[in-house]
Structure formats: C-alpha cells, structure tokens
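Write out the bound-state structure for zinc ion.
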Amino acid sequence: MGYMKEKVAYLRGMAEGMGIGGDPQGKLIGLMIETMDEMADAIDESELSIQEMDECIDDIYEELDAVEEYLFDDEDEDEFGEDDFLEVECPHCGETVYFDQGMLEADDLICPNCNETILSGEDEE
Ligand SMILES: [Zn+2]
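---
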C-alpha cells in the first residue's frame, strides 16, 4: 500500500470512529474520503509508471554505453596521446602544432602558425 493510501485509510478509520456518516455533512466527508482514496490510487499508479520509466532510461543508458564503447573502442589509445590531441611538427615553419580528432577527420590539416597545408588528404607528403 502506498503512503497516500495509508493516510486515506487512517482518515476513513477516524471518520468511522467518530460516527460520521449519517447526516449531510457526514455524507460530504465520506465522499471526500472516497475521492481522496481514488486520488491516492492515481498517485500510486503514476509512481509505478515513473519507476518503469526510470528502469527504461537506465536500460537506454546502458545500451548507449555499449554503443559508445563499440564506436570508440581503443581508437584513441594508439594514435592519440593525452586529451586526444595529435602532435605534429609543421614542415613549413617547424612549429609544433596540435590537432584534435575532429580536425584530423577534415580533408586538410592547416598549420595554425603559418597557415600552410601540412597534410592534404591521406598520407600525402
Ligand atoms: Zn607552419
């Protein structure tokens, strides 16, 4: 039994103990308790749905983790050092420049120091 249901049951017992019920006011109180009981049911139901949604979201997160692991598996351990940056010495100006993974996926690597093309496409010297 949910917390709200318990409270309503307590109220119902209290009303019965006080002998409320016969006169119009007693009927009104009886109806109010009935209404609260239905509300408590609705609240319990929503709590259950929320719990189910929580579990669904947990599952989705787990699956996302698996997908992430699959997509990015080991990739940055060999090619990239700390923070996924690749260190390159520019053949034009000799400056050591850093490229992140996103920049490496672009066609050309442009030296931020001298604006010359370091790499055009793949493995071209
Ligand atoms: Zn340069």
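---
The mean pLDDT is 84.
DSSP finds four helices and four strands in the chain.
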